[in-house]
Write a structure and sequence with these properties.
The protein has 207 residues and is an alpha/beta fold. The protein has one domain: 3-Layer(aba) Sandwich (Rossmann fold). Strands 1, 2, 3, 4, 5 and 6 form a six-stranded parallel sheet that branches. The longest helix is centred in the last third of the chain and has 26 residues. The two termini are 32 Å apart. Bound molecules: flavin mononucleotide. The site of flavin mononucleotide has 17 residues, from α1.
């Protein structure tokens, strides 16, 4: 299984990055997980020619050819970071590689709540017409107190959290397989979402 994981921040020091690096090593026998950065991407600015900047094109191609995607989000002011929102805006405005892609949401925060509100926010965003990812349902992996969560070698030191992550990842592996099977022959809605435009909605089209 080939997965792309996205570090949902432009911060140089991030426990969400450490979480994905841990997952990359910890699940290396079950999946190849590439850790992708959004930190050098430009802020979304709706260019008229709809051309994706090079970094977005590269990320989009990786998502397109992956079996699934993992997004790790911090929480800023009860929401996802602007840098992550901007990356998603580029993807939705240009190549739309997340349509029908199995996605697992995880997140880490310094406080106790583990980015729960940001994860709910991300779920809602990923369900928009141009993103329309297949988000793993009824599943959250919330890593609270993330500043103390990793040792010097990058191991997750909270044993209960490792067990929880193992279960979530097992479920996600199955979810990836089942979802890709499910969407394989059902391309009508996916094609509709690829063509979707908000201008059509203004003219009476449907979402
Ligand atoms: C401006 C700002 C707002 C924040 N808002 C929240 C918040 O709403 N909820 C929360 O749990 N942590 C909040 N934090 C704390 C951490 O940044 C947050 O826990 C983040 O998920 C840590 O992720 P990182 O280690 O990947 O940078 C905030 C921090 C800053 C600087």
């Amino acid at each position: 299984m080939k997965l792309v994981s996205i570090v949902g921040t432009n911060s140089n020091e991030s426990t969400n990055r450490r979480l994905l690096q841990f997952m990359q090593a910890h699940f290396s026998e079950q999946a190849f997980i590439e850790v992708c950065e959004i930190k050098d991407l430009p802020a979304f600015n709706e260019p008229e020619d709809k051309t994706a900047p090079a970094g977005i094109k590269e990320l989009s191609d990786k998502i397109q050819s992956a079996d699934g995607v993992i997004i790790s989000t911090p929480e800023y002011d009860h929401a996802i970071p602007a840098a992550l929102k901007s990356a998603l805006e580029w993807l939705s405005y240009t190549t739309r590689p997340l349509i029908d892609k199995p996605v697992m949401i995880v997140g880490a925060s310094h406080g106790a709540l583990g980015s729960s509100r940001a994860q709910a926010h991300l779920r809602q965003i990923l369900d928009s017409p141009e993103l329309k990812a297949r988000i793993m349902p009824s599943s959250e992996f919330l890593l609270g107190r993330s500043l103390d969560a990793f040792d010097e070698e990058g191991h997750l030191v909270y044993e209960d959290k490792v067990k929880e992550l193992d279960e979530c990842f097992d479920e996600f592996s199955l979810f990836v397989e089942m979802t890709n099977q499910l969407v394989k022959d059902h391309r009508f809605k996916a094609e509709k979402n690829k063509q979707f435009s908000w201008e059509q909605v203004a003219d009476g089209g449907s979402i």
